[in-house]
Design brief:
By secondary structure, the protein is an alpha+beta fold. It has a single domain (2-95), classed as Aminopeptidase, CATH 3.40.630. It is 24% helix and 37% strand. The protein has 2 helices and 5 strands, in the order E-E-H-E-H-E-E. It has helices at residues 26-40, 56-65, and strands at 2-6, 11-14, 46-52, 68-79, 82-92. The protein has a 5-stranded mixed sheet. The chain is globular, with a radius of gyration of 14 Å. The two termini are 23 Å apart.
């Protein structure tokens, strides 16, 4: 899901939940297709996401899809009764290659 955050700056926030279908490559593919759509159809420039640091598989999937590490907010979220870091990642249109969508013009 993309949530348009700032129309003037052409940026949005990304989030996805897979549940029991995790580990099948669906998250990477869905993320890549969503970025493709965001950059080539919506003409976004920057997409950001936040993920809990314990979600290593999710972080790897986001990296495969085109996101890069921006930084982390230390002990920013309460998860399972303990404080965990929030990892911040983003993707920019100029780094995104390999569109599968037809040109929109």
């Amino acid at each position: 899901m993309l949530a348009l955050r700032d129309h003037h700056h052409l940026r949005a926030k990304f989030g996805i939940v897979l549940g029991e279908r995790r580990g099948q490559g669906l998250g990477t593919e869905a993320t890549r297709l969503t970025l493709d759509w965001g950059f080539h159809v919506l003409n976004l420039h920057n997409v950001v996401l936040e993920v809990m640091d314990w979600n290593a598989a999710g972080i790897r999937a986001y990296e495969k899809a085109g996101f890069r590490l921006v930084g982390r907010r230390r002990e920013a979220l309460l998860s399972g009764g303990r404080w965990v870091d929030e990892v911040v990642m983003d993707a920019v249109a100029s780094d995104f290659t390999g569109s599968v969508l037809p040109a929109v013009g």
